[in-house]
Amino acid sequence: TSTLAPTLIRPTSTLASSTLEATSTNSYRVTNLLDGDPASAWSEGAEGVGLGEWVQFEFSDAIALARIEIANGYQKDNDRFEGNPRVKSLKIEYSNGTTQLVDLLDTMEYQAITPTIQPVEWVKLTIVSVYAGDEWEDAALSEVRLYAKSR
Hints:
The protein is mostly beta strands. Helices cover 4% and strands 44% of the residues. It has 1 helix and 10 strands, in the order βββββαβββββ. Strands 1, 3, 5, 8 and 10 form a 5-stranded antiparallel sheet that branches. The chain has a 5-stranded antiparallel sheet with strand order 2-4-9-6-7, with no helix packed on it. It is globular. The chain starts with 6 loop residues before the first strand and ends with a strand.
């Protein structure tokens, strides 16, 4: 039997509970999480540090996920990474009813999460707690990579 590497998949739709308003130079839209560029980020736009704010990824078919990788914070540069809140703990909900609570490190590396083994139609990430930012209150994530198990 061949062991095929997991495949990076692109959700058919991506939703967010809120989004920080764009500036003349930066947008913070939720699709920034999928653009392969850690210098762009999704930033929530709610009052406070983003507790309870969420992003959701939906798939056209039920997909067995192999791995979720997250680039925490706003990784455009060190000032923005330190200046904005980074996610400390994240609630991950799946369409099959499974829920995980995961802790993220306060670093700029990609962090891998082992998801539920059952196929799912959507995944929702909700901010539970944050590492405080030095300057701003907009919690951010730079990238989310979703990998499907190879069939």
